[in-house]
Write a structure and sequence with these properties.
2 helices, about 0% strand, mainly alpha
Length: about 60
């Protein structure tokens, strides 16, 4: 069968357009995780226990 005879379905626009939230959420979650790791590393390097670091990070998020 010649290639010109094979029809590929065309996806309607409403089925492949992302919302802003869908596009940005994975990036935000990745960034948030990277920030958490860096904050924990810095706190532990400064002599804080992991529990103290977690509590401090949680306290910062409340503000």
């Amino acid at each position: 069968m010649p290639m010109s005879a094979i029809r590929q379905p065309v996806t309607p626009p409403h089925e492949h357009i992302l919302t802003v939230q869908e596009a940005l959420e994975p990036l935000f979650l990745k960034l948030e995780t990277e920030v958490d790791v860096q904050l924990m590393d810095a706190a532990i390097a400064a002599g804080w226990s992991p529990d103290e670091a977690i509590n401090a990070i949680d306290e910062l998020r409340k503000h």
